[in-house]
Amino acid sequence: MFIKIIIHLLLVVFGVLIAQDGSNAIYRRTGIHDGNLVYTRYSNFGNLGSRYEPPKMEWPKGSGTWYGYEFIMMAGAEVVDTSGNIIHIISENYTNASSFDISPDQSHTYGWEPLPGYFNTGSDNQDEYPAMSHKPETWPNSWPHDYPGLPGTRDGLWNGEFGAYKRADQESYYVMDDRYNDEFGYYPFINSSIDSTGFPLGRRGIGLQVGVRGYQWVQVQAEDILIVRYDIKNVSDKVLDEVVFGMYVDPAVGGQGDSVDDDAEFDTDEDITYCWDLDGIDNQGRPGVGYFGYAFLESPGNPLNGYDDDQDGLVDESQDNDRGQQVFGPIGNFGEPKLHWEGDEDGDWRTFEDLNTNGQWDEGEEVWDDTGSDGIGPNQEEYTGPDSDGTEANGMPDHGEPNFGRTDNDESDQIGLTSFLLRPAGNSSDDERTWNEMTPSVFAGALPSNLAFTYGSGYFSMPLESKRKFAITCLFGNDFDDIIRNKRTMQKIYDADYSFAKPPRTPILTAVSQDKRVVLKWDNNAEKSIDPIYGKDFEGYLIYRATDPSFNTIKTITDTYGNPIFWEPIAQFDLKNGLHGPHPIPIGETGAHFNMGTDTGLQYYFIDENVENGRTYYYAVCSYDKGYDTDFFNRGLTNKDQLSIISPSECEKNIQTNLVGEVVAMGRNCAAIVPNAPSAEYVPGEIGNVLHSGLATGSVNVSVFNPDELKDNKIYHITFTDTTISKLTKSITIENITDNLIVFDSKNYDEDSLKSISIEGLHFDLVNDSVPAPKDYGWKWSNGAESVDAFVEIDNSPRANALPEDFEIRVLDFGADTSYNPLAFLRAPVNFQVWNTTLDEKFKFSLNERVNIDSVLNGGDEIIILFDVQGFSYKSCWKITMDTLLTMNPSPGDIFKLTIAKPFGSLDTYEFQSSSSFSSNEIAKSGLDDIYVVPDPYVVTASWEKPLYYSSGRGERRIDFVNLPSNCTINIFSMSGKHIKKINRQSVVQNGAESWDLVTEDGLTVSYGVYIYHVDAPGIGTKIGKFSLIK
User: Fold this and answer.
1) pLDDT single digits (tens) 867-910
2) CA–CA separation, 822 vs 872, rounded Å?
3) Residue 979 — φ and ψ, nearest 5°?
4) pTM
């Protein structure tokens, strides 16, 4: 708010009365593009950057290194004034106070002003931004009808270039015109009172209206790029035969005061203008200043000159053509002649998939490009239903659909960069001079001491109601080669209609600070994402931690050229699907490959214990997708075959700070947090021992994930269901039986899924003996000796079942039991019995004597345990084969014990009780001696102090008092007894630290020396201590 007040005062002082009654200047707004590493303010009256408000073309975001003031979009035309003179009018809106192109009465500038209706004027648009795709609160309640389809069909949706679909990760949109440019005697409307009326009701200028869209992507290959697209329309009553389009660039590469050593150049082959700092050092003495430039991705086309301007094999293609008829013919350099619609000059529009050849789209078939005028098809997340105008899946291309008309960047004839002029920074209000500077084929200028330059593209004609489009990319690089690579990469992507894979949704992150650790927890929202081309392609999560809000300090993984390209995560969790290690497709031209993980399985929490109390940490949990390669369909990684190969994409991480480093906004997948010891009276929540009743042999470990989430005096039960005989685990339920509340219920038992989440502050780590199997067995000889002397396995028979029960073979006198055989005469007495010790029941068995046939248990004998025996009908389970040479011959009193691993089942219940965190003054009293100051001594700085990123100076100074009670008073004195500072502390019990900025009660910076502190905690006690400052 303070910055906005200052800016408003500056504008008033400079004579721009932006609140003039009836003037569209009241709709002026600025916003911030921060969707990738390019971080800049922009205005809705044609300018990038800002003369007065940061950020000003900062790159990389968070570095504090900015590259210029403002960059002004200009359009000019040759016209005839009322005296019959040929004049040249330029519309722009340079906000430099000494360079205003302003009316004599100072009431208005001769340039662009925003049109109403393109942003929300209500109070919920708190930042007062123009409309931005990621901020629905900035959207108007009802968009002006400038889109395909019926009026009102975009209300409540994003009004994008590609329909309601958000093509980029961050977009902006506004519309402006030049109605107040009444400097000359030219009237664009014929026989109309509109343009003869004076300001502010008149409509003058050249008669141009411009729609402006900004685009940013988080993908690595586009992270240094901001695209701005301008759609210029001649809304006047007069044909404009010669029009030129361009920009005035006022750079300051390295920041304010460092522009005297800037240089600039151009390259017509690449359609790029660029500038750099000669010594590579910014205005704060920091090295590493990069290159900054503007490049045409698409320049205004001339579809009327009968010439193939862009050498693509198509003459005078236009994005405003109707579909026409289906014809068989050439499609330029885009392929062999084919059947296509006349208006789809490059032949790339596809109608819906028709698998059953019934001539209509049916559910389950791909709609391809036949999405309808809103640009959103049935398989896209924003889809709300068929288009009300009947254009969806109608078998014909319609405006608003992909790959047709204004959404197809190949359907435009282009001129390219036609002028570049170095000039001193300053006044651009002389229209004739500016027109001459943008004359086609003018590439000139000497390097001035304070660099600026203009560039242009022209001339082209604009008939009535015609539109011309051009797209520029504002791009950055570490050096010349890097910026050229970025331009070429972006050109390919642009020519393919921004063919990025859409990254998965951002997870919702919750972060909790604890003593020397930070607990992160996130949802699975990202896994529900649907890419419009690649479908459900979610792959995993990357966990980042940095000590700067822009994560620049962890961008340490470099590409083939040594440029930092990837951030180093502290953890990564990915699907167990065989897609691991470096991705097969490199990132653009960098030669770098995205690390897909190690098939860890997904997890939805992370505990970071590699942290220091008192330091601010910035976290982000970023989802990423699979990308695509030619074998992904055959490998089962996707259900979509024969798509274009592409490298993976990762969702954004965005934390905004102000000039002093305070966080003012952050993405929902980000957190800024300071770990600290709790207050002195804090007693964390805990759980009692886990008690087990039942037979299962697996382990259940319940630990406290976040003690402050624990419920007080609640008893929990963990129960299971199972199958019939083998009692395999089917489901699991965790219930708060105190409140009769089920907190977790899964019909399919999956311990990995349970392990990946936390529930009411608890973490559950279960290890199931999922299949009954021999766990432990061997002889317990009557003389006290033990040996194995046997091998146990499941019986090799169709009758066999893995029975999860324990057994004993008890050696007794001869005749103790009978070996079972369905034929009674084959049954034989033996000297042992088989007991099921789980059920305490004697079981039947079959004895197969392999060595000594004597009905006595000997080496080599085989015992098969039987159950459910009814004549010839019986089942078997475990087969016990004795070693041929036993340690000793079994005799009465000897026992062979067999323990079977048993899955969690319906007979098992695990119980534990939780207690919540609470405060205890008695605990606090005993902890008063634990209060101290860190760091002590304070020597020049502390490790946790935040630097200033956007200005010079010392930055933060800070010491912390730790282990304090939540409510207390701290008084600080000099050694002579002078009172220095009083700090009244009222805090939550989870935070036991209180900071002091080393400023006295009088607002002065404290001097070095030894100081005494006195802590007074009502109801608890006092503590006196001392600390030292060495500055």
Assistant:
1) 999 988 999 999 999 999 888 889 999 999 999 999 999 999 99
2) 5
3) -75, 125
4) 0.79
